[in-house]
Amino acid sequence: MAGDPYEALGVSRGATADEIKKAYRRIAKTDHPDLNSDPAAVARFTAASAAYDLLKDPEQRRRFDAGEIDAQGQERATARQWRQQPGGGNPFGGGGFGGHAQDPDLADVFADLFGQRQQPRGGFGGFGGFSGRGDQRGQDLRLPLRVDFMTAAKGGRMRITLPSGGTLEVAVPKGVREGQTIRLRGKGERGMGRGEPGDAYLDVSIAEHPHFRRDGDDILLTLPISLDEAILGAKVAAPTIDGPVNLTIPKGATSGQKLRLRGRGINGGDQHVELRVAMPPKIDPELEAFAQKWRDAHAYDPRKGMTG
User: Fold this and answer.
1) Cβ proximity of 84 and 78 under 8 Å
2) Quick one: CA torsion of 221, 241, 174, 197, rounded to 10 degrees?
3) Most CB atoms closer than 10 Å: which of 70, 115, 205, 251?
4) Does some domain include residue 186?
């Protein structure tokens, strides 16, 4: 990531952690490669992902704001540090890196700059103590993962598109929840040299189902029943996440009445079935005549007491 991470996310330097997170998610919803294949959108998403990885960590953000690290999270060597080296204006002190390695602060700076680790006797190894950029861990990725309801409930595998254009197969654990983060070790950006790859963090959102809803590990279902099933009782097929099961409707069932199917939820949870009496699509003369006759002999007021 080049440039200013705040600009990449479109937030001010005084933005709260929540504002930074919302800005990243807003960009992901419009510019993620799965949603927008425009190269400019991919570039915006890649920059926003790197910016979020830097700013989400309070300590990293503090160090960036203080000028201690750059937008890539790498240590900065300030002009003041160079001037403080032994040997005046020569940053190498006239004697290679050996003298500087004795100062632990400067040793860390040079280690980050040149990818070297301090040697037991104060040398940095390589030709004159300098061997180029060296090893760096790859950037972490943070990506949205939209999971369909049944895959979230039962687990499964999905394939997602990475900002680089590649694809990645993801194992979705059974019972994953809205807002949960799935960490994939080593599936982030490639490292430099012998540096390890970063990790991929997938922010889960779950799509709605046309019939099922979820409350923790319980499944909620509204089940329509016919007028005659409500009056006479019946055995009907009720859908569950594992397939239909027979459900006994008691005589005189009414809308809003709830029945429970034990163990038919997620990871041992239950399924709760709320009944809804559905009138026939057309009231024929026979049903109308029967209802009128029944009313004349058995009228009752279900709203008694509601109006005083």
Assistant:
1) no
2) -100
3) 115
4) yes
65 is a domain residue: no
Nearest to 253 by CA among 273, 271, 229: 229
Residue type, 250: P
Q: Are 245 and 255 in contact (CB under 8 A)?
A: no
pLDDT of residue 218: 97
Helices (H), ranges, 142-252: 149-154, 227-232
Rg (Cα) of the chain, in Å, rounded?
Answer: 32
Q: What's the predicted TM-score (pTM) here? A: 0.56
240 shares its domain with 284: yes
Q: What is the pLDDT of residue 134?
A: 63
pLDDT at 38: 82
Whether residue 123 is found in the same domain as residue 144: no
Quick one: 107 and 165 in the same domain? no
For residues 267 and 278, give the distance between their C-alpha atoms in angstroms, rounded to a whole number.
32
Write out the H or E segment, with its range, that includes residue 9: helix 5-9
**304 found inside a domain:** no
φ, ψ dihedrals at 59, nearest 5°: -70, -45
For residues 183 and 120, state if they share a domain: no
Rounded average pLDDT per 10-residue block, the chain, 308 residues: 83 91 89 81 87 90 87 66 42 37 37 39 38 71 94 95 83 94 89 88 95 96 97 97 97 96 96 97 94 94 86
Q: Structural domain of residue 203, as residue ranges?
A: 137-208
Q: How crowded is residue 154: how many other Cβ atoms within 10 Å of its Cβ?
A: 13
Distance between CA atoms of 143 and 181, rounded to whole angstroms? 10
pLDDT recorded at residue 73: 78
Question: CA 10: distance to chain centroid?
Answer: 20
**Number of domain units in the chain:** 3
